[in-house]
Design a protein that fits this description.
Helix content of chain A: 40-55%
CATH architecture of the largest domain in chain B: 4-Layer Sandwich
Number of domains of chain B: 2
Oligomer: heterodimer
CATH superfamily of the largest domain in chain B: Ribonuclease Z/Hydroxyacylglutathione hydrolase-like
Largest sheet of chain B: 8 strands, mixed
Strand content of chain A: 15-25%
Mean pLDDT of chain B: 78
Largest sheet of chain A: 5 strands, mixed
Structural class of chain B: alpha/beta
Structural class of chain A: alpha+beta
Distance between the termini of chain A: 54 Å
Number of domains of chain A: 3
Shape of chain A: globular
Number of strands of chain A: 17
């Protein structure tokens, strides 16, 4: 029997179909993605049903708005295997399915490579047997034709991405035929953007809770960053753009334009067009509140950093090519030069993407701000590359500074000041955490022996296979178990030590204010240990950092009226009771980076649940018009992204 | 009438207790001792039989008290909770048996107002399309997103409320009174207009004669900074792209599915129901012959905990396109609230003001400062002399302005009436509506020294009022099962 293939090649649009009718672009617009091989299909109890369902994604092509469903593409069919999948086409739903699958997987691959471990989708909350619990979700679902609307969004409730399609209106660009159908599922950028929302939601579930102006903006920005830089990872695209530049060689402009084209099909991303690669305005951040526009400022900052890095990396090439004058001769560039420049752009993009993704493990679990993200970027990169000889970090800091993004509580924008501080944990707390982790490792060893081995490549029944049958599912179960162990251990030893708890940003036991959810369903003191992840990262110099990333969170009832808050928080009330009727939810907690070998806590990014300043900030923010607030109820709408993207 | 020997007070205001909705009777004392009766709105959300009976009784009480003659009937805007009383379903017969002398409507209803006509045309088209779409969605067995249904219904997008609940039909009946055997005259309120009636001058504050203002359901960032509305929500409610959205395939989805008759001119000539043309695609149903869709979408293969449900379970998207329409309808709803006829009724002599802003939201309130009255009176003065404030939109968070609204009502005699049914509002799907909004209620109580009258709970408790106002208030206010009344 021949060996299983290792790669699957699939054709997609690099941009969207509209560019295929432009003479200068059509060649670059058709690219072939090289993806890891995986068996596709599901088992229905009797046989394998072929269709675009893999280990991470399931593409389901139903179209309720038209009352139709479309036949699934069988990518294992011999003719498709021999021709890199279905030919790019607007009028073949099978190509649409292939495109969302391929671009989705490509985004996941990029993300995982940077993260250094498997990506997980956000588990689903279910109410069963009288209590809420989390249920493992194995695959993200993708609906290429979910609705007839100029919208596409990730639904955190359904763990699904819904792509709409609509009749194009005349936008005056001459690119799109008015009255023709625009399919959002055929835009590389939209797919990558939405998949990244889902990936980020899996990593940081509370980043959809708009507790300050930066949170949702960060979600949007991050999704754009991953989408833009995965576009730079397509060598054909970068090469074509650079070659097109000819004598008026202005790579910066070209790369900027490439980023600006992002999402042009829907004509929504005004901010990106206006901010990227343009003169930065540091005061803009103070007056821009709409999540996409505010997010675009962060994207622009990261893009500036990327350009700085690229410029630094190509300085020598430019000197060689221009004989030191810096002025390019007229006419086409030498193909070798184009090749070298595009390789540098490609490498810089990959590095920036890696840095951006890695930093996620250094972010606090709730209430993220742009400034904190900057600190995470710098800290994560210092861990991996202590010696910043390519001045990446300087480029990053400069990019952020130019756009007016400053973190709170640091006294300078120097690298040292921006790095997260080493935690000043008391010996007791450090020991307690180390002991909890030892307990986890001991139990894991014991359980490990009993663990059954799953044969690779089995078709799984249904779309939510039992977790123990899949590798990621098992990792999830293991993590769940570990979290319980750690929480119980910490609570047992810390429940009446508020002066220790505050270092973790949480609060349990006696003297807890009434608005803090510090009791579990059985009335025992509690906070949540949400995630314990293993992060093994290898830097370019071969430095390996192996960390546990531990997330602790807690909820608190927030009231718009400070008086009411005070009353609920009165010490006389039973500690940690649930007060009911809250206007909003405030969250606190921390992310701990703990060395895997020594169990020493290296960093602690905490957000104190009792912070009055944060409470006040959230109150103020909620008053200023947050998208997704309900009409009359004041409750947050669940389809955060549907609202955000609906124009 | 002859029996009544007592003179009418300068003004006597009855707030009826029919449920969540507005119905007011203002009786202005005339020089000859008789009264000039003004009715402002008559409606209730609830369509249950007990609610119908209640509103009928309210209408009958109006008939008794006015002797069967309404001098001025004001209808503020076209929402079910303000006009349901004029529908066949509820109390039309009672009103039909009365003599109605004059009608006052907002300029938006004036057939000679060009902007009014343009808006009507523009939004009516959208509304009709939405209404048809929702009705058909209902027939197709698709629920409208929770919470949205009833809101839509109030705007005439008849889904949740049932047959005969069409507010525009009810309003049309009122307009038709001009053609009866004893025809009523009709007036249209334009901001800046002063209408003189025996015992009072009525200043028209809104709706603003500007489409832009009407679209503002919320204050922007500036309003937030000034602490203007009590809680603002997102600003996505720009209506300018509505037509684009419709053209962009909203209603077309229904047409395509064969669930809506394609109107002449074609909602969607482009795909005849199949976006890929020809024969690509199979009808979507749980009995599909497509084994993949059957297995994955309809979940026939899901384990025990996942009962195979028609409609595809928690990940299904059968209803997603309906929710897009709901979103649109909600924006329409706010727009209609902003078309509220907002009135300041100034009593002759004392010059004290009764403020009736109906359901005006941010855009309406914030336009008042630019209104010019021919006698030079400013909106801020009217607010300063307000002694009775009919709280806007049943006390919701965005229908009372703070700095340019409530804070300006600084008369020591200020009282407030909230036509609200809190229990009913809380029961509404989607987590209930915060009516009255707690923070607003608190500030109202402070500002009025506790003199907040509510349709659901009646007169305030003595203990919740400041001691200095208690005895005077007790003398002027009364209540029954049917109404809360205050004499000025």
């Amino acid at each position: 029997m021949p060996a299983t293939p290792t790669r699957r090649r699939l054709r997609v649009y690099a941009f969207d179909p509209s560019l295929s009718t432009r003479l200068d672009m059509w060649r670059a617009n058709q690219v072939t993605l090289n993806l890891p091989w995986e068996p596709l299909g599901v088992w229905n109890g009797r046989e394998a049903v072929k269709g675009p369902v893999g280990d991470y994604l399931e593409v389901v092509d139903v179209d309720p708005a038209s009352g139709l469903s479309y036949e699934p593409v069988d990518l294992d069919e011999a003719r498709l295997l021999a021709s890199d999948g279905v030919e790019a086409s607007e009028i073949d739903p099978k190509f649409h399915q292939q495109m969302v699958y391929a671009v989705g997987m490509n985004t996941i691959v990029h993300f995982e490579r940077a993260l250094g471990r498997s990506a997980m989708w956000n588990p689903r909350w279910v109410f069963r047997g009288g209590k809420w619990s989390q249920e493992y979700v194995h695959r993200l679902r993708m609906y290429p034709h979910a609705m007839r609307e100029a919208n596409a969004y990730y639904s955190p409730d359904k763990k699904a991405i819904l792509f709409g399609y609509f009749k194009a209106v005349d936008d005056g660009s001459g690119l799109i035929m008015p009255g023709s159908t625009v399919f959002t599922c055929l835009s590389h950028d939209i797919i990558a953007h939405e998949v990244t929302h889902a990936l980020l939601d899996g990593l940081h579930p509370y980043f959809t809770d708009a507790s300050n102006a930066d949170v949702l903006a960060f979600h949007e920005a991050f999704a754009d960053i991953v989408a833009i830089f995965s576009r730079f990872s397509m060598p054909e695209v970068v090469r074509t753009e650079l070659a097109r530049a000819q004598g008026r060689f202005d790579a910066e402009n070209m790369l900027g334009k490439l980023a600006q084209q992002f999402g042009a099909a829907l004509g929504k991303r005004k901010g990106l067009r206006e901010y990227i690669g343009k003169e930065a305005d540091p005061s803009l951040i103070k007056r821009t509140m709409e999540p996409h526009d505010r997010g675009a400022i962060l994207v622009a900052a990261v893009f500036d950093a990327f350009m700085g890095i690229y410029r630094h990396r190509t300085r020598d090439l430019m000197r060689i090519a221009t004989g030191g004058t810096g002025v390019m001769p007229d006419g086409d560039l030498h193909p070798d030069l184009v090749e070298r420049l595009s390789r540098e752009a490609f490498t810089s993009a990959r590095h920036v993407l890696t840095i951006c993704v890695r930093a996620l493990d250094y972010c606090p679990p709730v209430d993220i701000t742009f400034g904190e993200y900057l600190r995470s970027l710098i800290t994560a990169d210092t861990d991996m590359v202590p010696d910043d000889d390519k001045s990446y970090r300087v480029a990053i800091i400069e990019g952020f500074r130019r756009h007016g993004i400053y973190p709170e509580g640091v006294n300078s924008m120097s690298e040292e000041a921006l790095r997260w501080e080493r935690p000043q944990f008391s010996e007791g707390l450090q020991e307690c955490i180390a002991a909890a982790l030892e307990e986890v490792e001991r139990r894991e060893k014991k359980d490990g022996r009993r663990e059954e081995v799953v044969p690779h490549g089995v078709f799984l029944r249904g779309t939510t296979p039992p977790p123990h049958l899949t590798q990621r599912g098992r990792a999830h179960v293991k993590m769940d178990r570990a979290c319980t162990i750690i929480r119980d251990y910490l609570l047992k030893h810390l429940k009446d030590e508020p002066d220790i708890q505050w270092q973790l940003g949480v609060c349990a036991g006696k003297r807890t204010p009434g608005s803090v959810h510090a009791l579990d369903s059985r009335g025992r003191p509690s906070f949540q240990v949400n995630r314990l992840r293993q992060a093994r990262r290898v830097g370019p110099a071969g430095i390996e950092v192996a960390d546990y990333v531990l997330e602790i969170t807690q909820k608190r009832d927030g009231f718009i009226d400070p008086e009411r808050q005070k009353e609920v928080d009165k010490p006389s009330r039973s500690a940690g009771g649930r007060s009911g009727g809250a206007d909003f939810v405030m969250r606190g907690g921390c992310t701990l980076n703990i060395d895997m070998k020594s169990h020493q806590v290296r960093y602690c990014m905490a957000k104190n649940i009792l912070s009055d300043r944060r409470l006040e900030r959230q109150r103020e923010f909620l008053g200023c018009g947050v998208p997704g607030m309900g009409i009359y109820s004041g409750k947050a709408d669940r389809e955060t992204f549907a609202m955000l993207h609906r124009h | 009438m002859a029996k009544r020997t007592k003179m009418w007070p300068a003004a006597s205001v009855r707030m009826y207790r029919q449920g969540l909705g507005d119905c007011f009777l203002i009786s202005l004392g005339k020089a000859d001792g008789a009264a000039h009766h003004i009715v402002i709105d008559c409606g209730v959300w609830d369509v249950s039989v007990p609610a119908r009976e209640r509103i009928k009784k309210c209408a009958e009480d109006i008939k008794t008290r006015t002797g069967g003659r309404i001098d001025l009937l004001v209808v503020t805007h076209e929402h079910w909770d303000h006009v349901s009383g004029f529908s066949e379903l509820q109390a039309r017969s009672v009103f039909a048996s009365m003599e109605i002398k004059e009608i006052l409507l907002a300029w938006t209803e004036d057939p000679e107002d060009e902007l009014g006509l343009a808006l009507k045309g523009k939004y009516a088209a959208i509304k009709h399309r939405l209404a048809a779409a929702f009705t058909d969605a209902g027939k197709a067995g698709l629920g409208v997103n929770s919470g949205v249904g009833t809101v839509l219904a109030a705007g005439g997008l008849g889904v949740g409320l049932g047959v005969g609940t069409n507010p525009s039909e009810a309003l049309d009946w009122v307009k038709g009174l001009v053609k009866g055997s004893k025809p009523a005259t009709v007036r249209y309120g334009m901001p800046g207009k002063i209408i003189e009636v025996p015992g009072a001058k009525i200043y028209v504050l809104g709706p603003p004669h500007s489409e832009e203002d009407l679209r503002k359901a919320q204050g922007g960032k500036k309003a937030k900074k000034e602490g203007e509305t009590y809680l603002t929500e997102s600003l996505f409610d720009e209506l300018s792209d509505l037509n684009g959205m419709i053209a962009g395939g909203l209603g077309s989805g229904l047409a395509a599915a064969g669930r809506m008759a394609v109107s002449p001119g074609g909602v969607m000539p482009w795909d005849n129901g199949r976006p890929f043309g020809g024969t690509i695609g199979e009808r979507l149903s749980g009995r599909t012959s497509n084994p993949f869709v059957r297995e994955v979408y309809y979940g026939k293969g899901e384990g025990k905990g996942h009962a195979a449900r028609a409609g595809s379970g928690w990940r299904g998207i059968d209803q997603e396109w309906v929710s897009a329409m709901s979103e649109l309808a909600l924006r329409m709803d706010k727009f209609t609230n902003n078309t509220s006829l907002a009135l300041a009724i100034e009593l002759t002599g004392s010059r004290r003001v009764l403020l009736f802003p109906a359901d005006a939201q941010f855009g309406n309130w914030s336009s008042w400062d630019s209104v010019k009255f021919e006698d030079g009176v400013k909106a801020s003065e009217l607010l300063g002399r307000t002694v009775l404030y009919k709280v806007g939109h049943h006390g919701s968070h965005n229908a009372t302005l703070r700095e340019r609204g409530l804070k300006r009502m600084n008369s020591p005699d200020l009282m407030a009436m909230i036509p609200v049914d809190e229990a009913f509002a809380h029961k509404q799907p989607g987590g209930g509506w915060k009516m009255p909004y707690p923070q607003l209620l608190k500030e109202l109580q402070e500002q009025t020294k506790g003199r907040v009258m509510r349709a659901d709970t009646g007169l305030p408790k003595t203990t919740s009022m400041k001691p200095e106002v208690r005895s005077a208030f007790k003398k002027s206010a009364t209540q029954s099962k049917l109404y809360v009344q205050v004499d000025l």
